[in-house]
Amino acid sequence: MDQSEPTEHTPETAPSPLPSPHSPSRKTVLRAALAAGVALPTALVGVPALARTTRGAQTPRPELTPSCDDGDDPTPQQTEGPYFKPNSPLRTSLLDGNPPGTRLTVTGYVFGLACRPVANALLDFWQADVNGAYDNSGFRFRGHQFTNAQGAFTLTTIVPGLYPGRTRHLHVKVQAPGRPVLTTQLYFPGEPRNNTDSIFDPRLLMTMRTNGPLQEGSYDFVLNVPQDPGPTDPPTTPPPSGTWRAGAAYRAGDRVTYAGRSYTCLQSHTAGPGWEPPNVPALWRAG
């Protein structure tokens, strides 16, 4: 049976520019802090209205949300396609038994408009099997989960197969508690069909790496969730004196002073306003 998804035309708007590769964004800094186990305020806890129960609901697609104030693009929406099923099982692994295919782990975070993590956000994933077929009678390669208190998620699955008309992709619905559902897709870099798939959007490319026989991907979602300003927003008063300077390039091991204290750089970066050492423990260690 031909399971090609119908081609849909998206509004003719130019993609937002990609973040500069020379300096990490606020979201990147927060992601590093979360991965390092640094305590950060969480946002919006509670039980969401599940996206997996909304099939047939006449919910208008939201407009693209304003970007986080460090220039990160919000996650673009994409077509649901014909193969979404509600009531998928609660699970982080879509591997029923030992299915054929290259094992894939996808990790990431869900952020709000201030680039702060969203706890208890719903993620509902579905995909094709290694042969490019969707299970429309059961729930093979379908499942939903919730982000943890740090806004993080992990999905264990396989690299989906190809089928006519589409490049390789994962489907996902993402919903913060009490907020609209974002329906979108995630893509794989280096796929030849990325150049011919009319739905493909480079802003939805995962960051991929090979770990032996496994594939590991990462992607962070930004949702239309109002939040208080994050801990790395630029201060409204002049910073205290010291050797730290916005715009300077620092390498791991470099030492600076700020507000009478000494700090050691933990990872290379170009400093920006609001990234003073006390504000970003993922980048600086006191002492």
* Helix-strand sequence: HEEEEEEEEEEEEEE
Rg, nearest Å: 20 Å
Treating each run of at least 4 consecutive H or I residues as one helix, how many helices?
1
Distance between the termini: 64 Å
What this model shows, in words?
With 287 residues, the chain is mostly beta strands. Helices cover 3% and strands 23% of the residues. It is built from one helix and 14 strands. The strands form four sheets. Strands 1, 4, 7, 8 and 9 form a five-stranded mixed sheet that branches. A four-stranded antiparallel sheet has the order 3-2-5-6, with no helix packed on it. Strands 11-12-14 form a three-stranded antiparallel sheet, with no helix packed on it. The longest helix has 10 residues, at 26-35. The N and C termini lie far apart (64 Å).
What are the key terms here?
287 residues; five-stranded mixed β-sheet; mainly beta; 1 helix; elongated; disordered N terminus
SSE layout:
Blueprint lengths: L25 H10 L67 E9 L10 E5 L15 E5 L5 E7 L10 E7 L6 E6 L19 E5 L2 E5 L2 E2 L26 E2 L4 E4 L2 E5 L3 E2 L13 E3 L1
Produce a short descriptive summary.
The chain is mainly β and 287 residues long.
